[in-house]
UniProtKB/TrEMBL annotation:
The keyword Transferase applies. Pathway: Amino-acid biosynthesis; L-leucine biosynthesis; L-leucine from 3-methyl-2-oxobutanoate: step 4/4; Amino-acid biosynthesis; L-isoleucine biosynthesis; L-isoleucine from 2-oxobutanoate: step 4/4; Amino-acid biosynthesis; L-valine biosynthesis; L-valine from pyruvate: step 4/4. Belongs to the class-IV pyridoxal-phosphate-dependent aminotransferase family. Keywords: Amino-acid biosynthesis, Aminotransferase, Branched-chain amino acid biosynthesis, Pyridoxal phosphate, Transferase. Signal peptide: none annotated. It comes from Geodermatophilus nigrescens. The modification N6-(pyridoxal phosphate)lysine is found at K215. This is Branched-chain-amino-acid aminotransferase.
Length: 379
């Protein structure tokens, strides 16, 4: 069945001051097609019926905000973002709640990080309330696409790019802000299974003064060769070391890392401190809080490869896991490095990793009280 609205209309939603959200007619995918996608969504390969688009022009500000049918963009071949990567993005999820409503998780934190990323790339920031309004408008319009299967979500991808057709190297005067949505199952198709990692000694992700602490597109382009090297070495993921001494562990691929020291009631968490070269993950920040709620000691400090290796050998380091919005929490098992391989744990996910994972998922899916006010009801 298709449900086509006759005309564009101005909704009661406001993107930012003086800019209402126009809703264009959208042809909805038949329910049977949608259900087929939702039965096994994978990650990042299917998209919903609508998308959100707003434009910026120097001197005019943000304007022309609309919900429009999901579809190709027409871009000039000289579009600045295609040449110089003046482009940023965010990732967050909408979760079906047990009462039938839909909620996003800490979207204010994504809005704030998006604005920080924009400033670092010399872009006009999307006002934080406008970011939230855009995400809410899209989730509300496409709420039928929020999957309800175990641990399924609607992954949301806000992004901003320099759309001015101009080849000079300077901040563009025109930008697009978009939000697209993609139903998501597990990010790692093998499920909760320890990943093997390769310590990158040839490449770095981020250097002091660079862009490692923001989500700009170029960071991900520059990471791909190291990820390929990890795969060639028989590993699932790359682990990044600090650029200066190549001694300290920073991140795993696009995820933050945690180390569990000790076990049982004495277990302690260590996560690399935010030195300016790590992305301040919202999952990382949430887990620091959740772990403290559970009575665990959590320390943010530098953590070296030597400490990791020695800790695994003498039993001090009992578990290691990575965390991020897309994959939530993933245990780390085998570690390969030119300086010698080692394995954390016994090849199965550890109890602290799994306890924190369940706790966070329970909050996000509304199965336990949201004591920190992290859920934002959308629809
Ligand atoms: N580190 C990097 C480099 C990332 O791209 C991401 C993903 O956004 C994360 C960490 C985890 O951040 P978050 O928990 O906010 O998704
Ligand atoms: C994450 O959510 O953990 C990410 O790194 C997003 C990724 C798909 C870029």
């Amino acid at each position: 069945m298709t449900d086509t609205l006759a005309d564009s209309r101005t909704s009661s939603r406001i993107f930012t001051e003086g800019v209402p959200v126009t809703v264009e007619p959208v042809t909805r995918r038949p329910a049977a097609d949608r259900e087929a996608v939702l039965a096994d969504p994978g990650f990042g390969r299917s998209f919903t019926d609508s998308m959100f688009v707003a434009r910026y022009e120097a001197g005019r500000g943000w304007h022309d905000a609309r919900l429009t049918p999901y579809g190709p963009l027409q871009v000039d071949p000289a579009t600045a973002a295609l040449h110089y990567a003046q482009s940023i993005f965010e990732g967050l999820k909408a979760y079906a709640q047990p009462d039938g409503s839909v909620a996003t998780f800490r979207p204010e934190a994504n809005a704030a990080r998006f604005a920080r990323s924009a400033r670092r790339l010399a872009m006009p920031p999307v006002p934080e309330e406008a970011f939230l309004a855009a995400v809410d408008a899209l989730v509300d319009a496409d709420r039928d696409w929020v999957p309800t299967g175990p641990d399924q979500t609607l992954y949301l991808r806000p992004y901003q790019l320099a759309s001015e057709p101009f080849l000079g190297v300077r901040p563009a005067t025109e930008y697009l802000f978009l939000v697209i949505a993609s139903p998501a199952g597990a990010y790692f198709p093998r499920g909760v299974h320890p990943v093997s990692v390769y310590l990158s000694e040839d490449y770095i992700r981020a250097a002091p003064g660079g862009t490692g602490d923001v989500k700009c597109a170029g960071n991900y382009a520059a990471s791909l060769l190291a990820q390929e090297q990890a795969i060639a070495a028989g590993c699932d993921q790359v682990v990044w070391l600090d650029a200066v001494e190549k001694r300290y562990v920073e991140e795993m691929g696009g995820m933050n890392l945690f180390f569990v020291l000790g076990s049982g009631d004495d277990a302690e968490l260590v996560t690399p401190e935010l030195t300016g070269t790590l992305l301040p993950g919202i999952t990382r920040d949430s887990l620091v809080t959740v772990a403290r709620d559970r009575g665990m000691r959590v320390t943010e400090r530098k953590f070296s490869v030597d400490e990791w290796r020695a800790g695994v050998a003498d039993g001090t380091v009992t578990e290691t896991f990575a965390c991020g919005t897309a994959a939530v929490i993933t245990p780390v098992g085998e570690v390969k490095a030119r300086t010698g391989d080692f394995t954390v744990g016994d090849g199965t996910p550890g109890p602290v990793t799994m306890g924190l994972r369940e706790h966070l998922l329970d909050i996000q899916h509304g199965r336990v009280p949201d004591t920190h006010g992290w859920l934002h009801r959308v629809a």
